[in-house]
């Protein structure tokens, strides 16, 4: 009836099953690094531990499925989670593009097939915005109308309403990108967000937020995402990101800072495990604790 969840770089079977590997190995051998970054530069590592995060989420989901299955069958399972496989599932259309067309996507191409080949990060008045020219839920007409409303409609070539024209390197793609960035540079990130999503269909232009932006975001504040915790040992309070989801019936929340080394030894060993003080002292002398 036991459920055991194993998280490893490559899984429990196969020729790589005994290999060790940190997060960068998962990103590299899962195909993520190949499609991240700029076309004229080497592969780029995502700054956070995306491999560890991704496989942990899949492992947690699988574990809950196994718990549900056990409720019906009475049998436990061994969950075998591979970081490499988890990262491969996160490289967007790279895998189906190879399966269907036999084409390996490189850096700069992840949005170029089926979504328009226009670059996705543009400068604006106070930073950068992420912009998708053509995707489900938006249209080239939407960006044309937004530019027209802001006095730049005469510079929009009607031929660009066909996004396939912008998927190829050339004069049209360069002209369109220059026009879009010219408009973005006139406005701040939040102004562009308001203008872009207050219309139907929306223009997919969103701020590339910094850590400060997240902390000061009215959306984060409205959902109580940023939590302030006391640090008595530092004589100050520190803000932390809180729960990424809301569970009304069984709320999960941060209630205190992370423990110091050995801070809860007494609670764990003496209260929970019923180890007396003399035995605990011996364990500490032997380096067990």
What does this molecule look like?
- With 289 residues, this protein is of the alpha+beta class.
- It folds into 3 domains: 4-101, Crotonobetainyl-coa:carnitine coa-transferase, domain 1 (Rossmann fold, 3-Layer(aba) Sandwich), CATH 3.40.50; 121-209, no CATH class; 225-285, no CATH class.
- The protein has 12 helices and 7 strands.
- The chain has helices spanning 23-29, 32-35, 50-73, 83-88, 94-101, 140-149, 171-184, 189-197, 211-216, 218-222, 265-272, 277-285; strands at 4-8, 78-82, 121-124, 127-132, 204-207, 226-231, 236-241.
- The strands form 3 sheets. The chain has a 3-stranded antiparallel sheet with strand order 3-4-5, covered by helices on one side.
- The protein is extended, with a radius of gyration of 25 Å.
- The two termini are 31 Å apart.
Topology:
Elements (H helix, E strand, L loop, with lengths): L3 E5 L14 H7 L2 H4 L14 H24 L4 E5 H6 L5 H8 L19 E4 L2 E6 L7 H10 L21 H14 L4 H9 L6 E4 L3 H6 L1 H5 L3 E6 L4 E6 L23 H8 L4 H9 L4
Jot down its keywords.
single chain, 289 residues, alpha+beta, Rossmann fold, 3 domains, 3-stranded antiparallel β-sheet, two-stranded parallel sheet, 7 strands, extended
């Amino acid at each position: 009836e036991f459920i055991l969840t194993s998280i490893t770089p490559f899984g429990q079977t196969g020729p790589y099953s005994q290999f060790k590997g940190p997060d960068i190995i998962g990103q590299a051998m899962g195909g993520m690094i190949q499609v991240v970054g700029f076309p004229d530069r080497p592969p780029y590592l995502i700054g956070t531990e995306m491999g560890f995060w991704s496989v942990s989420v899949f492992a947690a989901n699988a574990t809950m499925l196994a718990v549900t299955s056990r409720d019906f069958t009475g049998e436990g399972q061994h969950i075998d989670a591979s970081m490499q496989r988890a990262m491969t599932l996160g490289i967007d259309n790279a895998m189906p593009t190879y399966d269907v067309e036999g084409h390996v996507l490189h850096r700069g191409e992840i949005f170029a097939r089926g979504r328009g080949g226009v670059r996705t990060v543009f400068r604006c008045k106070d930073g950068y915005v992420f912009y998708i020219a053509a995707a489900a839920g938006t249209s080239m007409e939407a960006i044309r109308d937004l530019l027209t409303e802001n006095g730049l409609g005469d510079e929009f070539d009607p031929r660009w309403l066909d996004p396939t024209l912008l998927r190829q390197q050339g004069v049209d793609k360069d002209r369109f990108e220059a026009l879009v960035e010219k408009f973005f540079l006139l406005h701040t990130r939040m102004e562009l967000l308001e203008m872009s999503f207050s219309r139907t269909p929306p223009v997919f232009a969103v701020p590339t937020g910094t850590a400060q932006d997240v902390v000061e975001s009215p959306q984060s504040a409205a959902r109580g995402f940023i939590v302030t915790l006391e640090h008595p040992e530092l004589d100050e309070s520190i803000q932390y990101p809180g729960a990424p989801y809301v569970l009304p019936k069984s709320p999960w929340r941060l209630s205190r800072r992370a423990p110091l080394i050995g801070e809860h030894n007494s609670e764990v060993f003496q209260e929970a495990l019923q180890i007396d003080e003399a035995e605990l002292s011996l364990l500490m002398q032997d380096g067990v604790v």
